[in-house]
Specification:
mainly alpha; 68% helix
Length: 203
């Protein structure tokens, strides 16, 4: 029944797939069943939570189980638990760059911008085409830190963070494009230099 439900799911016969999944009842030692169930019934938060907890109980160290949990925690805006789970899983297997990325993202959403930036500065992503997520999180964290310093009137520190935001660190797996959009970063720099009465740099 389980494999038949996957075939129906693949054919986008969702209602029939759900019926077969539910007809399977419990599959005590097979965590992929519960991951599938959670994904298929993604609109049912209660069922998703129960399915992911069951998968975790069966195989607590499996990275796919923990990734599904982290994504669900982020979806529920439980960023603290998402960060904690992602960090624990990442530290057990540092080859899982996707889990490190989730950790940095959860920290950013938790408004722990400095922790997110510090982590990404020492985080290694294997380069691949379209690998921009790490750099995007890095940029957002640096910009957020710059704004925090602006509010405190610390314009020189804000400039330092904006200059970081303009970087494309090699360790994050994304090369700098030919003509990146840096209008926001430059606008903040202009404002900071104006406040410091440095009209030459502002110009």
């Amino acid at each position: 029944k389980y494999y038949a439900s996957l075939i129906l799911w693949k054919k986008e016969q969702i209602d029939q797939a759900k019926e077969l999944i539910l007809a399977c009842g419990e599959e005590p030692g097979f965590f992929p069943f519960y991951l599938s169930k959670a994904k298929l019934f993604k609109e049912n938060k209660t069922l998703v939570k129960a399915s992911l907890e069951k998968a975790k109980a069966i195989n607590p160290d499996n990275w796919r189980v923990n990734l599904a949990l982290v994504d669900q925690y982020i979806n529920d805006k439980n960023y603290t638990l998402a960060a904690k789970t992602a960090k624990k899983s990442y530290l057990k297997n540092k080859d899982l760059s996707i889990m490190g990325m989730r950790y940095a993202s959860a920290l950013l959403k938790e408004k722990k911008h400095k922790q997110s930036l510090d982590f990404l500065e020492n985080f290694e992503v294997i380069p691949f085409e379209g690998a921009t997520e790490g750099r995007e999180i890095y940029n957002q964290a640096a910009i957020s830190l710059a704004f925090n310093e602006l509010k405190k009137g610390k314009f020189k520190v804000a400039i330092q963070y904006v200059e970081k935001a303009k970087l494309w660190p090699k360790n994050l797996g994304a090369g700098k494009p030919f003509n990146p959009d840096e209008r926001l970063e430059n606008a903040i720099l202009v404002y900071c230099y104006e406040q410091l009465n440095n009209k030459g740099e502002a110009a």
